[in-house]
């Protein structure tokens, strides 16, 4: 995990990273302080090209990294509440939306789904934006087989998901979501229709 550029303040997010990168030029050698398993280590990096404003992809390119993600920590108001995610065989970021919804359900009063069978997919970023995924048709088929009544799909995948559900003769409702808030609202609206 990137902590900071040597001689700079700690980096808490993409805005801080953009500020730190603005002090350097592509091709310049920099020293990064990274945290690896609790140990802070200096890592020399020759900066690559990046655009302005700096995107997560541009920052990853500048730092010669495969991918860049922000690490966020949720602190429940009641310390007794804890969430542990056992992803099992789930691989990749496409379960991000559903993990986030389950976390909300566990840490807030009431039952978000009220026992309804809800499925969905999508990446999720630190701002709560839901991103596109690959293989949406396969996920719709799996959700239908499990008896899902509602399927939450990222905006970029929603048409394909709805078309797949229709081609199967499914009664499962497919709803497009752009954000985590929209996903929660979609569940609440669907729940109210019962």
UniProtKB/TrEMBL annotation:
GO BP field: protein catabolic process; proteolysis
Catalytic site positions: 94, 139
Domain Lon proteolytic intervals: 86-190
Keywords: Hydrolase, Protease, Serine protease
Endpoints of the signal sequence: none
Catalytic activity: Hydrolysis of proteins in presence of ATP
Enzyme Commission number(s) of this protein: 3.4.21.53
InterPro entries assigned to the protein according to its UniProt record, in alphabetical order: Lon_proteolytic (IPR008269), Lon_Prtase (IPR027065), Ribosomal_Su5_D2-typ_SF (IPR020568), Ribsml_uS5_D2-typ_fold_subgr (IPR014721)
GO molecular-function terms, A-Z: ATP binding; ATP-dependent peptidase activity; serine-type endopeptidase activity
Domain of life: Bacteria
Similarity comment text for this entry: Belongs to the peptidase S16 family.
Classification via PANTHER family: ATP DEPENDENT LON PROTEASE FAMILY MEMBER (PTHR10046)
Protein name: endopeptidase La
């Amino acid at each position: 995990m990137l902590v900071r550029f040597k001689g700079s303040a700690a980096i808490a997010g993409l805005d801080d990273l953009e500020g730190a990168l603005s002090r350097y030029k592509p091709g310049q050698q920099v020293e990064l302080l990274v945290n690896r398993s609790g140990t802070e280590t200096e890592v020399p990096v020759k900066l690559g090209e990046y655009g302005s404003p700096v995107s997560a992809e541009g920052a990853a390119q500048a730092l010669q990294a495969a991918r860049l993600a922000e690490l966020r920590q949720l602190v429940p108001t009641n310390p007794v509440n804890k969430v542990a995610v056992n992803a099992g065989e789930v691989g990749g970021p496409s379960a991000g939306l559903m993990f986030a919804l389950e976390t909300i359900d566990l840490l807030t009063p009431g039952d978000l789904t009220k026992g309804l069978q809800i499925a969905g997919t999508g990446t999720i970023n630190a701002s709560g934006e839901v991103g596109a995924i690959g293989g949406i048709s396969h996920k719709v088929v799996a959700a239908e087989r499990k008896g899902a009544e509602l399927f939450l799909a990222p905006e970029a995948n929603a048409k394909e998901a709805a078309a797949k559900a229709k081609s199967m003769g499914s009664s499962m409702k497919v709803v497009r979501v752009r954000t985590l808030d929209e996903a929660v609202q979609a569940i609440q609206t669907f729940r109210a229709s019962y």
